[in-house]
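pasting for ref
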Amino acid sequence: MIRKVLLYPLFSLLLCFAAVARANELPPLEQVQVHACRATSSLLLFRGEGFQEAHSARMRADLKALDDAFTRIAAPSEAVRKTHDELVTQLDRGVSFGHKENDVPWRYPQELAKALRDFLIAARTQGGGAGAEELPAKVEYLNVQYLSRSYIGSFEISRENADSYIGQDERRLLPDIDQELAPLDDKADSTVAKLKTRWSFLKAALSDMNSQSNALVSTSGRPYAPMVVDRHARSMSGQLLALDALTPGPSP
């Protein structure tokens, strides 16, 4: 048991660093969207699962990946710079609060969600993102929504940006991801077959999120499973980052 406890943080870090290496296939403005969502998910796990060092270490690795990708943006806009700094500030705040529910300011969940949305909007606007390159970010954004409902309450999407993934929840994103995965040949490529198998499980869990309701209960009435969903979401986004089908054109 002790051995497992000691190995888990190391294993988590190795997964993060491996994902960073794969993410180098995407332009920096797409990378930062993935890593921003991942860092937010790690914070939610850290606070929601009892302040475990493994989740703290994973968040630090995610922030390092975010910083590395940010520094590779050739000429970040002022909006990207400001929203990046604000998101990092809010993530750091989330770690600094005490362990009791009353230690967290009541507006903090809304402030964290806004910081993430604003940064994603700024990065996507500058990058002009659309299409398959956004798939990893869409999966991780849905994961943030799911973890938020599991631990702190509903995640407010950017409804004024309903034409992009940042303004969408599972009701729009699940069929959208389905459609984008459909052309990938799972019969000729075992990697794609594994990806689609993982997506089948993840889709079933995410479709139970029940975002249309203010009550924090799943559609089926079953308890949320944030740890399981997070593990599959991160693995899937890593698989997507590794696919040749997502290889982009020149970096901005």
